[in-house]
Write a structure and sequence with these properties.
The protein is mostly helical and 75 residues long. Helices cover 83% and strands 0% of the residues. It has helices spanning 2-8, 13-30, 35-46, 50-74. α1 runs antiparallel to α2 (13-30), α1 (2-8) runs antiparallel to α4 and α3 packs antiparallel against α4 (50-74). The longest helix is centred in the C-terminal third of the chain and has 25 residues, at 50-74.
């Protein structure tokens, strides 16, 4: 959502960036395996290419969905 807000609401970009970086820290703490995806998103965001970052964010969502499926199968 933070990336989507960067894409559509450039007037509050600083706020959306702060939210994004805070969320990144939380996600990396909870799921360090997401580092490579987040690194790609970070590079794209730092280049102000928010639409492309949204596409990479979809890969993060897919990773999380697979991790949840795996956890459910294990229990």
């Amino acid at each position: 959502m933070a990336i989507q807000l960067m894409y559509v609401d450039g007037t509050n970009l600083s706020t959306h960036h702060n939210t994004y970086w805070s969320l990144v820290r939380d996600v990396l703490k909870a799921a360090p395996g997401t580092l490579s995806i987040i690194d790609r998103m970070n590079d794209i965001i730092l280049g102000s290419r928010y639409y492309k970052a949204l596409k990479v964010a979809k890969k993060l969502i897919e990773y999380e969905e697979e991790a949840i499926r795996h956890a459910r199968r294990s229990t």
